[in-house]
Amino acid sequence: MKGTSSITNCHATKNGNWSGNGGAVYVRYYEKSSQFTMSDETKIENCSAEANGGAVFLEANCTFGMTGGEISGSGATNGGAVYVAGKMTLSGTDTVY
Q1: Is residue 23 helix, strand or coil?
Q2: How many CB atoms are located within 10 Å of the residue 46 CB?
Q3: Has this prediction a pTM greater than 0.90?
Q4: Which long-range contacts (CB under 8 A, 24 or more apart) does 28-35 make?
Q5: What local confidence, expressed as pLDDT, does residue 94 receive?
Q6: What's the CA gap between 84 and 35, in Å, rounded?
Q7: How many CB atoms lie within 10 A of CB 17?
Q8: DSSP SS3 for 45
Q9: What pLDDT, on the 0 to 100 scale, is given for residue 29?
Q10: For the purposes of burial, counting CB atoms within 10 Å of the CB of 42, is it exposed (0-12), middle (13-18) or buried (19 or more)?
Q11: Which portions of the chain are predicted below pLDDT 50?
Q12: 86, 38, 29: which is closest to 65 by C-alpha?
């Protein structure tokens, strides 16, 4: 995600085979690497999940890099904004609240 893109007002629900994780973004491990990156003035706002990661959920062996952008107004049972079972790197002017 880069530039001025945004994701707003989304929700992940538990239903049958759906986990209820990652209100806006769910990163699943696939073979050697899986990653999600936010930069510039990107925004994820007002998202929620019934389980983990109101805005972003990453499975084990996945990477989340944030070199700018904002995550706000998100909530979940665990990891209100971000739930990372893998690795997360923050640098620059990131805002997560």
Answers
A1: coil
A2: 18
A3: no
A4: 28/59, 28/62, 29/59, 29/60, 29/61, 29/62, 29/86, 33/61, 33/62, 33/63, 34/58, 34/59, 34/61, 34/62, 34/63, 35/62, 35/63, 35/64, 35/65
A5: 64
A6: 11
A7: 5
A8: strand
A9: 86
A10: buried
A11: none
A12: 38
Q: Which two tokens stand for residue 90?
A: 């923050």
What is residue 97's predicted lDDT score, i.e. its pLDDT?
A: 60
- Is residue 47 within 8 Å of 9, Cβ to Cβ? yes
Write down the pLDDT at residue 43. 94
Alpha-carbon Rg of the chain, whole angstroms?
Answer: 12
The first and second tokens of residue 62, run together, are 């996945």
Separation between Cα atoms, residue 40 and residue 24, nearest integer Å:
18
